[in-house]
Amino acid sequence: MTLTPQRETTGDAVDAAIALRGLGLDADDSTRRRAEYSYDASNYRLSPVCVVFPRTDIDVATTARWCHDNGVPIIARGGGTGMGGNAIGEGVVIDFSRHMDAVTSVDVEGRTAVAQSGVVLTALQKRVREVSDGALTFAPDPSSQSRATVGGAIGNDACGNHSVRYGRTTDHVVAISLVTADGVRLTATRTGLRATDPGDSAAVRRAEDLTDALRDLVGDNLAPLRTELERIPRQVSGYHLAHLLPERGFDVARALVGSEGTCAIVVSATVSLVPVAVHPQLLCLGYRDVVDAARDVPTMLSFSPSAIEGIDERIVATMRARRGRSSVEGLPDGNAWIYVELDEFSADDVPAAISDLLEKLRAEGRLVDARTVTDPAARTMLWRVREDGAGLSSRLVDLDDPDAGSGYESWPGWEDSAVAPENLPEYLEGFQDLLARHGLTGVMYGHFGAGCMHVRITFDQRTEAGRAVMLAFCRDAAHLVVAHGGSLSGEHGDGRARSELLPIMYSPTMMSMFAAFKDAWDPRRILNPGSIVDPDAIGDHLALDGIPTRRWTTAFDLGIPGPGSDGRADHPLEAAELEMPGIDPFVHATQACIGVGRCRSHSGGVMCPSYRATRDEKDSTRARARVLQEMTRTAPDIATGWRSKDVRDSLDLCLSCKACSTDCPTGVDMATYRSEFFSHHYRRRLRPMSHYALGWMPAWLRPATALAPAINAVLGSRLSGPAARVAGLDARRSMPRFARRKNVRAALVPLVRRTDAPVVLFLDSFTKAFRPDVATAAARVLGSGHTDRVSCEKDNCCALTWISTGQLDHAKKVLTRTADALDDGTDRPIVVPEPSCAAALRKDLPELVHTDAARRVAARVRSFAAHVGEMLDDGYTPPAMPTSVTVQTHCHEYAVFGPATQVSVLKRLGVSEVTSADGCCGVAGNFGFERGHYEVSMAVGEQALAPALRARTDGTPVLTDGFSCAMAVDHLSGVDSAITSVAGTHLAELLDPERATLRPEPLYTDPLRTGPTRKDST
User: Fold this and answer.
1) Rounded to whole angstroms, how far apart are CA atoms 570 and 152?
2) Which of 21, 287, 539, 796 lies 20 to 30 angstroms, CA to CA, from 195?
3) The predicted structure's pLDDT at residue 899
4) Cross-strand partners of 312
């Protein structure tokens, strides 16, 4: 390992993991793990020596001592969501989020909490609210709060959407428990520094020595400390040394906030808490542009709001294009919007205050339109647009044609500057002029009320000329913000992105003080080298620099063409080695992940079920994308890359749920990338047995139906275990019962192809083989009680199982036949009862079969629930519905047809109480059946479905349109004594005009369980 002269090593860094494991530490130096931690949410890439996962502060101290003795850099890391490049480095990365994630105490009376460094901010807030009966919370709420950690918030001095009232993390830190660069445990407080363990004489001496050094530093430099620092609310750049001034009480704890892990390692902190507003109201204001909006900020501030946040039209257009127009509703007219939140702490009469504010804003003459949002669900939706700003703005749609795909690609680098709020309009005008001079476009959003603008810019970091423009722009932007009295960073920190520019903002004296402050703590400069002091150049270690120009042949049309390419790669495999101009579509697709880490959130949405089950970075969508990025960068050739064991291992626990394609702000579609990779990885190689047993199910289901009694008898006996193991399946998973051939015939024979019917019912293999009664019910619903009013397509296949196992050559053949059969020259809707099949025909069909017929067919495809919504639009009158329903929305329907499709349709049908199990069921097609996946599958089921089933009232239907979801419900009710026996029901069965009672019997066969059986399947 090569370090700069100031960072010389005295030990063999290559052997770091071996040595650290020898000390009893969990250290991982696998190439896959190092790839996962080579990135954060910045523009940079640096490969660590290894990653350590500490469980206690003693583990952290042990790691630090070894690194100090051997001259190996240390990089402390929380959620890895920083945009400045300050959570990566060529040393030992310490990941606190894996194990050191406990809230150890909450003092309601004293309004403080103690939390370990790896606690996610939303987890801290949730725990505080639980203990305080909803009265208190931790105030900092950055947009990444669902995965950012306490240690990261302290490291960067995070702020958030409500910083206009609550300020920065600095303002809420009471004490910090830390480990020094050489492994000494100290505690920094509001009035000084002490040994964490008073009996540790070495720590006592270190605290005394550091105190003397810091007091000397302050005493010699009182004037610059008082004049250069803390001039504006968001002056985060550099070190916060003003807190050491005598008039501030020698506040060492707050002086360390924002030091980005360059001075000490934070292991836990005591933080202050604030009261929770009970009655917030959101006012949305529409403006012509962001400059007009900024001019009205002083008027807004005079009303003591809790938030003043802004977004521009490109972010809104991208959200609507990616997730549907219903994902953004309630905005007033305008091209830029400000969210102003007022509550009982703003005014005694909030509605009157809002009315007064609007009157004053209209008098100013810049306001275009306004709307007050009182519905909590609508407020949540609008706040999500703002919170997903960083991801949404990275791949933007073309405003002139939102259906055209990604029209813009933008990056951080100058995304966090801040000025005083009153200077914001002039700064933005100058900033827009600067963008124009450099030929760049900036997407603006952020904390208008605090004067902090988040701007992602269309930098070209892939070419030398583009990088030169970026560097020149950043230097000019630094001069601009300083000229307006501002800061290079307002909450993200300086890191590798801005530290080189600090001399533009600060005097040589202050820069020398920063160096002296770091050296007092870390004389060997091993803590997060490259940031703030002795910084790396902005252009060093850029992740998009140096990627080989190669063509990775793909079966999928990834929809992101480069120059001279149609976005597809139907070239023969031999052509893959040819260098081609432009950005390779597969490489570009994997680069959609920019590291914001929403896939690491513990709640909200569905993504990423495997990470939520294991809490291991390797099982996040982000990590999988990063390992794929490393493959395209470092593989010696394309053939070797497709054979990557690291990628294969990374993708093993991906459920192919497709939730990331919707929940990920940048639209990463890991299910597609997984299928594509497996297609190449197993080409001309023996596959896992489950790929044959489950991947080829549609081919053998029809003959299996003829043998249903015999197969069911085997699956219901002791032979089921050995049979499952031979097929590569887990014997603990309940296997589905096959419907007998006579029952299949009875259900399907009346359903025929009709050219005069207004709707086409497409029956998938699973519905035909396991749930033929669903087919009949669906036909009756679509035909208003008459099956002869529906055209039925039952001889073709959606190829889903071949797609999910990466057998894409065969999948394309199957889909081509299906497209040709369904392309009948009409625009009749094609309704598919099985959501995963509907999603495959809607999304995968046109991406794999590049014909007009495929595109025409895909446009006609509806999920059953989505089509029922259209029927309601046309006046459909449903039968009497139950008052309450528990629904497990299939992940593919969630991703392709909309997250709220099932719930909204049920409410429109008259179900007054809909309990939605918002998460993956855990079975996820073949995933839950495969050997090696059972534990994770069950853990995924515990995220939402199992708790919903336990809370369900007897008699409440459980809606499971997806066959996998129905299997999950059946299995859980069979193995969990706390769940009342229940079988999943399809929406078609709920709406069937001839229904008598909902199916009470399970779909599965379990030789170890006694109970009801399906009479038609024995």
Assistant:
1) 44
2) 21
3) 87
4) 336
Q: What is residue 1015's predicted lDDT score, i.e. its pLDDT?
A: 32
Calpha distance 605→324 (Å, rounded): 16
d(CA 857, CA 818) in angstroms, rounded, equals 9
Return the HEC string of 876-909.
Answer: CCCCCCCCEEEECCCHHHHHHHCCCHHHHHHHHC
Short-list 673, 625, 524, 666, CA closest to 38? 625
Please report the DSSP string for 379-408 in residue order: HHHHHHHHHTHHHHTTEEEETTEEEEEEEE
Q: Rounded distance, CA 819 to CA 484, Å? A: 60
d(CA 566, CA 549): 17
Amino acid letter, 390: A
CA-to-CA distance for 133 and 126, rounded, in angstroms?
Answer: 10
Backbone angles phi, psi at 431, to 5 degrees: -65, -40
Distance CA(29)–CA(286), nearest Å, equals 51
Structure tokens at 970: 């059946």
Tokens of 777: 């019910």
Could you read off the pLDDT of 214-223 as tens digits, one per residue? Answer: 999 999 999 9
Paired tokens of 58: 């003693």
Rounded-to-integer distance, Cα 453 and Cα 424, Å? 9
* CA separation for the pair 888, 73 (Å, rounded): 47
What pLDDT, on a 0 to 100 scale, did the predictor assign at position 322? 67
DSSP letters for 406-444:
EEEE-B-SS---B--GGGHHHHHHHHHHHHHHTT--EEE
Position 987 pLDDT exceeds 80: yes
Q: What does the block give as tokens for 968?
A: 């999950």
* Neighbouring C-beta atoms of residue 529, cutoff 10 Å: 24
The crossing angle, in degrees rounded to 10, of helices 901-908 and 864-873 is 40
320 vs 18, more confident: 18
The amino acid sitting at 74 is I
Between the alpha carbon of residue 421 and those of residues 19, 293, 426, the distances in Å are: 51, 12, 10
Q: How confident is the model at residue 125 (pLDDT cuts 50, 70, 90)?
A: very high
**Is the Cβ–Cβ distance between 926 and 895 less than 8 Å?**
no
Give the model's confidence band at 1001: pLDDT under 50 very low, under 70 low, under 90 confident, else very high: low
DSSP 500-514: GGHHHHS-HHHHHHH
| Rounded distance between C-alpha atoms, residue 648 and residue 650, angstroms | 5
pLDDT tens digit string along 708-761? 889 889 888 888 889 899 999 999 998 899 999 899 999 999 999 999 999 999
Residue ranges of E strands in 361-486: 367-373, 395-398, 401-409, 442-447, 452-457
Q: List the one residue out of 485, 484, 502 whose CA is nearest residue 493.
A: 502
